[in-house]
């Protein structure tokens, strides 16, 4: 009689979920999903996929954290608000977070477990006034929500981002993603952006990753609306399907197959960077809550070392 191999022990799995939703209420010129509208049938397909995923999370015997990374803006739709609140009430869900432009209703947070729910809120100059965006963050503050605020470091937007930093609550982290347009930042721009975001330099680098350990595929995966699991959003090869297989059978330590990694949701999975030391429980919402946030010098040093060879800072 064949003996079934024991499944690897799993205490906690991070899942980046991206369903079929691919529309946004904003019109950012660089985004292919800007102002796209879905048909009722497409919305129903997304709703069904989301419901199936939430039910899957509910059934897992181990701890789970979820980051929703939609192609467009999801939090304007009640189904995503309800999914966030529902997941946040589960005892075995450690954290649930979502990337959002913060344009949707926020009242649902009043009934959510705000110690587990987090928002990754992106400010889009040109799509919303700074005053309007700041008003939304004040609503979050009044609700006691956990969130970070961020923007792309477009040099022309620097004065606006400086004003935003001055007007946000002092304890709110304002992250800045590097803007890639082929022109290097000037020294003055880099210094100004670092004053806004002390970790800005981390996002300007490409990290050597090929052949190196990565949590992606071992304790973190990305999942699409059909349940297809991949190591991360940046490695297309599927591992299997969470609805057809026990997800624990899909997980294993694997070296990265990409030459470099340069997106925040990717490189924070590199053990060499030790991003959890800075972000702690706020990792998925990009809220630095870890012990190293008070003095992130060691994190910056690791970023410089890992990003040195083959790195291409903007």
Automatic annotation (TrEMBL):
Record-linked SUPFAM superfamilies: Radical SAM enzymes (SSF102114)
UniProt key word Iron-sulfur: yes
Key words of the record: Iron, Iron-sulfur, Metal-binding, S-adenosyl-L-methionine
Keyword flag Repressor: no
NCBIfam families xrefs: rSAM_STM4011
Descriptive protein name: Radical SAM protein
């Amino acid at each position: 009689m064949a003996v079934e191999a024991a499944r690897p022990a799993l205490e906690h799995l991070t899942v980046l979920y991206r369903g079929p939703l691919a529309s946004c209420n904003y019109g950012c010129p660089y985004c292919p999903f800007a102002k796209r509208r879905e048909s009722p049938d497409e919305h129903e397909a997304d709703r069904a996929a989301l419901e199936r995923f939430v039910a899957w999370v509910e059934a897992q015997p181990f701890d789970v954290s979820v980051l929703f990374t939609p192609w467009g803006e999801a939090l304007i739709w009640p189904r995503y608000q309800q999914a966030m609140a529902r997941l946040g009430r589960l005892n075995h869900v450690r954290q649930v977070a979502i990337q959002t432009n913060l344009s949707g209703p926020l009242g649902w947070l009043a009934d959510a477990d705000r110690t587990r729910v987090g928002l990754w809120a992106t400010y889009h100059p040109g799509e919303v006034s700074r005053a309007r965006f700041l008003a939304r963050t004040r609503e979050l503050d009044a609700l006691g929500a956990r969130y970070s605020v961020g923007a792309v470091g477009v040099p022309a937007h620097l004065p606006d981002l400086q004003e935003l930093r001055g007007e946000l609550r002092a304890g709110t982290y304002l992250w800045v993603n590097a803007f890639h347009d082929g022109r290097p930042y000037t020294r003055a721009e880099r210094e100004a952006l670092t004053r806004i975001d002390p970790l800005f330099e981390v996002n300007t680098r490409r990290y050597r990753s090929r052949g190196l350990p990565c949590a992606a595929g071992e304790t973190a995966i990305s999942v699409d609306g059909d349940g297809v699991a991949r190591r991360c959003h940046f490695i297309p090869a599927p591992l299997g399907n969470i609805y057809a297989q026990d997800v624990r059978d899909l997980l294993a330590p694997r070296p990265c197959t990409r030459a470099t990694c340069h997106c925040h949701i990717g490189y924070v999975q590199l053990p060499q960077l030790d991003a959890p030391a800075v972000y702690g429980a706020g990792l998925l919402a990009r809220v630095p809550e870890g012990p190293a946030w008070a003095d992130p010098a060691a994190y910056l040093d690791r970023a410089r070392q890992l990003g040195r060879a083959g790195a291409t800072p903007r």
